[in-house]
Amino acid sequence: MRGRQSLKASPDVFTSIVTIQSHDVYSLIDPGSTLSFITPYVFMEFGMESKQLHKPFSISTPAGESIMVTWVYRDSIVIVHGQDTTADLIELVMVDFDMIMGMDLLYSCFTMLDCQTRTVRFEFSNEPVIEWKGVDVMPKGRFIS
Q: How far apart are CA 35 and CA 59, in angstroms?
């Protein structure tokens, strides 16, 4: 888990507000994460149910811990700057973020990241390029990345 200080020293993560199922959620954009994750507390508000993964798997945290994940929210509608995309979001209990956007979701949004300036470019097909500057405000507590 990365703490506030290690996030400040790490230029490779950003925070953002994105929309899932018509609700704004606080998201960590982390290109170091292969998959995207969401806390179950978000979907409890939507009344959506998760599905069990065909094969549960373990994820590793930077602190060396392993966490077993077994549930997924399939085909979740994620809206990034007015553009719809869908994602399978793995259920992971988190309190500091609602969601972690990993490479799978960033890929589906045709994303270009500039970690130096904390700029994200979404290049959806046949749409104008959307450029967005990441929030530099430090989140509280610890999180998984």
A: 10
Residue among 4, 2, 3 at smallest CA distance from 136: 4
- 145 residues of the chain, pLDDT tens digit each: 344 344 444 556 778 888 887 788 888 888 888 999 998 888 777 777 889 999 999 988 766 788 899 999 998 888 887 788 888 999 998 878 899 999 999 888 888 888 777 788 888 888 888 887 765 544 444 444 4
Q: What is the pTM of this model?
A: 0.78
Sign of CA dihedral 87, 17, 137, 116: positive
Alpha-carbon distance values, 35 to 20, 67, 80, 116 (Å):
16, 14, 17, 23
**Angstrom distance (rounded) from CA 6 to CA 11:** 10
